Amino acid sequence: MKASAKANKQANQIRIIGGQWRGRKLHFPDVEGLRPTGDRVRETLFNWLMPHLPEARCLDLFAGSGALGLEALSRGASEVTLVERDRQASAQLRANLEVLGSQQGKVIQADVLGWLALGNPDAPYDVVFVDPPFSLTLWQPVIDALSAGGWLAPEAAIYVESGRRSDYQVPADWALHRDKHAGQVSYRLYFISEAQ
Q1: Residues 81, 103: contact at Cβ < 8 Å?
Q2: Which tens digit of pLDDT belongs to each residue from 61-88?
Q3: Of 171, 158, 168, 187, whose CA–CA distance to 42 is shortest?
Q4: CB contact at 8 A, 174 and 193
């Protein structure tokens, strides 16, 4: 019993892979559909984003374990808003921000689509992470809501992680910057482009 509990605790950890908190291990709860972005994919993504992260305002939708948003904070983002519906996961995100001593992260416990539908009352975001539970097939409504609600800065970067067979359309002003696959996962980075 103790061995399996210990193994489960180790399995429910993410490791920050770069920046000021490099190597820090953080816990996340057992929540259905919560699937942290793997280390290799994260390393690739943040290599792509490196020039754009310092002082960036970031939005981590479906934050879950916080793997993307906390990594962005570690690597120099000025602030990160983590949106997560699950109460337990939200509480752990707040606890992890406290452990890291970060004042730049803000956790919002809300349904992502409902929250996006309210529109953005603040400054637009420079970097947005879209990584919903694959079973919910929410990519298209989230992309549509991001485009409609004043969420995106003029040259924003938008990261979309999906299953290989997932289907969605992006707006005409989203230019595909990079596109890779790892197993059954596709991950793409778009930038809003002025030229159309």
Answers
A1: no
A2: 999 999 999 999 999 999 999 999 999 9
A3: 187
A4: yes
Q: Are 133 and 62 in contact (CB under 8 A)?
A: yes
Q: Are the C-beta atoms of residues 105 and 35 closer than 8 Å to each other? A: no
Give the pair of three-digit tokens for residue 116: 């996006």
For the chain, which domains are there?
2-192 (3.40.50.150)
Q: What is the 3-state secondary structure (H, E, C) of 121-164?
A: CCCCEEEEEECCCHHHCCHHHHHHHHHHCCCEEEEEEEEEEEEC
The Cα 11–Cα 27 span in angstroms is 9
In this prediction the pTM is 0.90
Q: Report the C-alpha gap between 55 and 1 in whole angstroms.
A: 46
